Amino acid sequence: MESNNFLKAAKRHAERYFIIHYSSQSLYDDEQQGLSPRITSIVVRHLATGQTVSFAMHAVAEELGIARENIVQRYDQIESELLERFYEFVRDRRAQNWIHWNMRNLVYGFEHLEHRYRALLHKEAPQIPVEVRINLSDVLKDRYGSDYAPDPRMINLMKMNGDLDQRFLDGAGEAEAFRNGQFIRMNSSTMSKVDFFAHVIKLMESGKLRTAASSLGAWVDRLLESRGAKTVALISGAIGIPAALIEFFALVH
Fold first, then answer.
1. Of 34, 124, 168, 208, which has the most beta carbons under 10 Å away?
2. Range(s) for CATH 3.30.420.10 in the chain?
3. Is the pLDDT of residue 251 over 50?
């Protein structure tokens, strides 16, 4: 998606946007025995209000009256209920805009969620149309270039814009948490990522996002957050010269 259009629309109609992320069993774990990874938590945040909804394995198990030591034996029942609740939430919001991070295929993405729903519940999920899915990583590439952060991009972008959230788990950490039955940790990690995506959008809107890129978009953002930007804008407004032009001549002389 073209980043300028996204930022304008998200700022003007934030009530139409939801941020989504999820955690699962390891995507490449031999313990899966050829089956698709289980979904352990899905977190959705409303961009306008910041209200967050979690569909999490530990919470569903508790509400179903399933003891912690029995979760493994009843995985199918718990995951089925988790997905049923998530898609009940989705059903009336499919026409909204869904911001995600690389949820683009059957390995990790909306298709993975739909597949698990079909496999466990034997019916079709209320599909979120491809046209309303917005990959935040693609938006960042459009605005700052593909080098906006070194791989792994999410972690490094988070570090460039503050400390790494203590709740954050990478893929290996989530796989270990799953093996240890630490579903609260997995849900907390997912929430930390959704919170970070919302923070990234706000920083982009204000021109304060820090990246490793050298593209024109990054240069403009650095210009807008520079100490003298306000002074330049004031002078240019008074004499009718664009602020960026004044700054450019100041940099080259």
1. 168
2. 3-206
3. no
